[in-house]
Design brief:
Number of helices: 21
Keywords: Cell membrane, G-protein coupled receptor, Glycoprotein, Membrane, Receptor, Signal, Transducer, Transmembrane, Transmembrane helix
Strand order of the largest sheet: 4-3-5-6-7-10-11-12
CATH class of one domain: Mainly Alpha
InterPro entries: ANF_lig-bd_rcpt (IPR001828), GPCR_3 (IPR000337), GPCR_3_9-Cys_dom (IPR011500), GPCR_3_9-Cys_sf (IPR038550), GPCR_3_C (IPR017978), GPCR_3_Ca_sens_rcpt-rel (IPR000068), GPCR_3_CS (IPR017979), GPCR_3_vmron_rcpt_2 (IPR004073)
Distance between the termini: 121 Å
CATH topology of one domain: Rhopdopsin 7-helix transmembrane proteins
Organism: Podarcis muralis (Wall lizard)
Structural class: alpha/beta
Family: Belongs to the G-protein coupled receptor 3 family.
Protein name: G-protein coupled receptors family 3 profile domain-containing protein
Length: 780
């Protein structure tokens, strides 16, 4: 047996309405409704036979002769197709049995008006028509042809297809379908109006298979209200592209509270008195229930736990369709009519608003003077997703009871979807598929740094320099201004450490000034020590120039001040180390180095090395000085206020020269590290230069890999770390002796330690007073 699974929702809508009415004591008290369902098989013969069965007893067909009073036939709800209802009415009229039709031919006059308005709205004036080759189809053509023509709409073709009643007849129509498909393809009309019975979609899906030529999916299909989205079971694997993008006029429906729960409760595993559910289940899910007698069955076994929501939309929909809603309302119309009869308050007013469920959420319907339904239509866009899921998108409304400006409404933002590709939403752009027409494209996300704020953009746009794309890349966000300031934790922390180490340096300098006449302060030129301490103090203070809003003065001072101060500091270290080495070389008998030992040499080293750096900085400031700049591109979300170094070459020359001095100091101190500790500090200088060089070697990659304020923070950290290395390694050991071990800070102790520590070096050089005299010359 072949069934149409989609019709099962209509059965459930009828059963749900009867269930609600029987549970509502206010409508039909002490009365219960029941129902029988008969199939019309879409033809007159079977429709008449089913009607006779309804009016006869089970034993024999004798119209209007039923002895069972308890199961008396009180009314008939007609089928979904107008002609089927017309066949029933011919018989029922004889026996005065009331009939309520779900749909009526007259309501489609409003359908035609809606289609005409839709065509004029989109300026579609060259159209085709596909209709059924019967009385209803001919009536449709005779109605719309003159009306549409008067409005300037021309017909490219009018195709009529013969109806079929059983599946085998569909295969007999193979040749007919091929010819119709070819005519539609050959026509230049891009819009086709399809009018016919509820199952016409089954035939439309057949057209591409009937012809070897391309299918008709490139046309815009407009369907009249009686046509349903439905399939025969053998069309389960057929392509659904032909129904994608269809515009359908649908009878307005409302969501019914409890209906979805009622559907979800249906299962073939329970005895619910539902004689249709097993056949529906097997056809819809493509499975077979096990045989009662245990015979082997072919195919998949139905478990009864399959989910209705997993079925494709052409087989079953969880949301209420317009046709099912019409059946629901028809049952309520019968119930309220019976209620009026029982209460002796039946009237013949044209507006029968009482024929509705007593709920505010149900849409209002009315009948005209001829008892014909006056209702509205929703304009629905059918969308088939890539996973074959079906969606109904409401894009307009046809309301005959609305005000003149509300009779027809259309969502201007929702145009008929492309039959080849869906719209590309903001945040993406179209990419034409290779070898396909321009209307066939893929949607690709906007690349980093670009955005699209409209549908179907051919290319993504670039945000302005002061904005950047959002994460979804569908709009631009203003950038925020960024620089290392005193108002943020990072700036506050760096400033605090700079001032803290300044305080430590001042404290060390104070200790040295207080004990300036002690041997350990006088050793190796105390004036050089004072110069080095002041340079280190200024190094810490120079870090503060890098914090705050960049301006012309700060940008000029930052790097040049840093370069000069550090050159002086490293020059002092080099001078101290060189003085120590020369002093020990001068103690040898007959040495010519003695004339080089003294304060003048140290001053010369510091002055000459500093002047070279001053020259480099002068050239830098004259040729390409630093200046305030705005960087809008390094960091996506930020506008960075910075100091442009002007010439990066000169900047690295300043760093390179400082590094050169530091390396020379390190090499000299390294070779002098084993000299007696009483007269030199080469070991401490060696370690301090090792720290200094390590900091600035790691500075280069860290500086280049950082952006914005973090680049500035890296340089400040390097300044503080290297300055702290000089202060800690050179001066803290001396402060330790001055403050905590004052007994070691005397001339006799230094000479004694010197003579003991250099037994292999100095005794051969002469009396001890020669070394003492040289030491006095150096320190004084």
């Amino acid at each position: 047996i072949w069934v149409v699974p989609k019709n099962y929702q209509h059965i459930l809508a009828l059963a749900f309405a009867v269930k609600e009415i029987n549970e509502n004591s206010q409508i039909l008290p002490n009365t219960s409704l029941g129902f029988h369902i008969y199939d019309s098989y879409f033809n007159a013969k079977n429709t008449y036979h089913a009607t006779m069965q309804l009016m006869s007893s089970k034993e024999k067909i004798v119209p209007n002769y039923i002895c069972d009073i308890q199961n008396k036939l009180i009314a008939i709800v007609g089928g979904l197709d107008p002609l089927i209802s017309h066949y029933i009415a011919t018989v029922l009229d004889i026996y005065k049995i009331p009939q309520v039709d779900c749909v009526d031919v007259s309501i489609f006059m409003w359908n035609h008006a809606g289609i005409l308005t839709l065509l004029l709205h989109f300026k579609w004036t060259w159209i085709g028509i596909l209709t059924s080759n019967d009385e209803y189809g001919e009536r449709f053509v005779q109605t719309v042809f003159p009306v549409f023509s008067r409005k300037g709409i021309c017909f490219a073709f009018i195709e009529r297809s013969n109806k079929f009643t059983i599946v085998t007849e569909m295969y007999d129509k193979l040749h007919e379908g091929a010819k119709i498909n070819d005519r539609i393809i050959d026509s230049k009309a891009n819009v086709v109006i399809a009018n016919g019975e509820s199952y016409l979609i089954v035939y439309l899906r057949w057209l591409p298979y009937a012809s070897e030529r391309e299918c008709t999916i490139n046309k815009v299909w407009i369907l009249t209200a009686q046509i349903e989205l439905t399939s025969m079971v053998f069309q389960r694997t057929w392509d659904t592209d032909i129904v994608h993008g269809v515009l359908s006029f649908s009878i307005h429906s409302s969501d019914l509270p409890g209906f979805k729960t009622f559907i979800e409760s249906k299962s073939p595993s329970f005895k619910t008195g539902d004689g249709f559910i097993r056949d529906f289940w097997q056809q819809a899910f493509g499975c077979v229930f096990p045989s009662v007698d245990g015979d082997k069955v072919d195919g998949d076994i139905c478990t009864g736990k399959e989910k209705l929501e997993s079925l494709p939309g052409t087989f079953f929909e969880m949301s209420l369709t317009g046709h099912s809603y019409s059946i629901y309302n028809a049952v309520y119309a019968v119930a309220h009519a019976l209620h009026s009869m029982s209460s002796s308050r039946l009237n013949h007013q044209s507006d029968v608003n009482g024929l509705l469920p007593p709920r505010e959420d149900v849409y209002k319907i009315s009948f005209d003077q001829n008892g014909e339904l006056v209702t509205g239509f929703d304009i629905i866009n059918w969308i088939i997703s890539s996973n074959q899921s079906f969606h109904r998108v409401k894009v307009g409304r046809m309301d005959p009871q609305g005000s003149p400006d509300q009779v027809f409404t259309i969502n201007k933002d929702v145009q008929p979807l492309s039959v080849c590709s869906e719209s590309c939403y903001p945040g993406s752009s179209k990419k034409v598929k290779e070898g396909k027409p321009f209307c066939c494209y893929d949607c690709i996300p906007c690349p980093e740094g670009k955005f699209s704020d409209q549908k179907d953009m051919n290319a993504c746009s670039t945000c302005t320099a002061k904005t950047y794309p959002s994460k979804t890349r569908d709009f631009c966000i203003p950038k925020f201004i960024s620089f290392l300031s005193y108002k943020e934790p990072l700036g506050i922390s760096l400033a605090f450490f700079a001032l803290f180490f300044c305080l430590i340096t001042v404290l060390v300098l104070g200790i040295f000034l207080k004990h300036h006449n002690t041997p350990i302060v006088k050793a190796n030129n105390r004036n050089l020590a004072y110069t080095l301490l002041i340079s280190i103090l200024l190094c810490f203070l120079s870090a503060l120039l890098f914090i705050g809003h960049p301006n012309q003065v700060l940008c000029l001072l930052r790097q040049t001040t840093f370069g000069m101060i550090f050159s002086v500091a490293v020059s002092c270290v080099l001078a101290k180390t060189t003085t120590v080495v020369l002093a020990f070389m001068a103690t040898k008998p007959g040495s010519r180095m003695r004339k080089w030992v003294g304060r003048r040499l140290a001053s010369a080293i510091v002055l000459s090395c500093s002047l070279i750096q001053a020259g480099i900085c002068t050239v830098w400031l004259v040729t390409s000085p630093p200046f305030p700049d705005v960087d809008m591109h390094s960091v996506t979300e930020e506008i960075i206020l910075e100091c442009n170094e002007g010439s990066m070459t000169m900047f690295y020359c300043v760093l390179g020269y400082i590094s050169f001095l530091a390396i020379i100091s390190f090499v000299v101190a390294f070779f002098a590290r084993k000299l007696p500790n009483s007269f030199n500090e080469a070991k401490f200088i060696t370690f301090s230069m090792l720290v200094f060089c390590s900091v600035w070697l790691s500075f280069i990659p860290s500086y280049l890999s950082s952006k914005g304020k973090y680049m500035v923070a890296v340089e400040i950290f390097s300044i503080l770390a290297s300055s702290t290395g000089l202060l800690g390694c050179i001066f803290l050991p001396k402060c330790y002796i001055i403050v905590l071990r004052p007994e070691l800070n005397n001339r006799e102790q230094l000479i004694r330690r010197k003579l003991g520590a250099s037994a292999d070096a100095l005794p051969k050089q002469g009396p001890s007073d020669r070394a003492s005299g040289l030491q006095k010359e150096i320190t004084d």
